[in-house]
Design brief:
The chain is mostly helical. It has eight helices and no strands. The longest helix is centred in the middle third of the chain and has 13 residues. It is globular and about 45 Å long.
Length: 129
């Protein structure tokens, strides 16, 4: 189990959940994360050359936030820094790591588009509903 940060504790004492948090909690439940990660894995860089790769699930989460909230690459990067709900959904604790940068997200989005992975993900969601 992940240790709770001061920010997590502070937010847990609130009396009301935002609509954004409710939406993200629902998405957390219905998305078949393991299945989607496996769709991407064959196309994802191995990290043997160049910069170290980021986790596929983190990339998917950032991509989905971008789509759901209609934000640019730079916009979603900033929004994750600004929003506790987004950071919680991403699983980012600033003590351990930073938000993925906009260029990394751009390359990931192009990988999904080039390999038509969005269609596979959509079909997986429809099967689960």
């Amino acid at each position: 189990m992940k240790q709770q940060s001061f920010s997590d504790y502070e937010y847990s004492c609130r009396k009301k959940k935002t609509k954004r948090e409710e939406f993200l909690d629902i998405m957390e439940e219905i998305i078949p994360w393991d299945e989607w990660v496996e769709f991407v894995r064959p196309y994802y860089p191995s990290g043997k050359r160049g910069r170290p790769v980021k986790g596929i699930e983190k990339m998917l989460r950032m991509y989905l936030l971008q789509v759901w909230f209609n934000l640019s690459d730079e916009g979603i990067e900033d929004a994750i820094y600004d929003s506790y709900a987004f950071r919680k959904f991403m699983g980012i604790n600033f003590v351990d790591e930073q938000v993925l940068d906009a260029t990394t997200l751009l390359k990931f989005r192009h990988l999904l588009e080039k390999n038509h992975l969005g269609e596979q993900m959509f079909k997986a969601i429809c099967r689960g509903i």
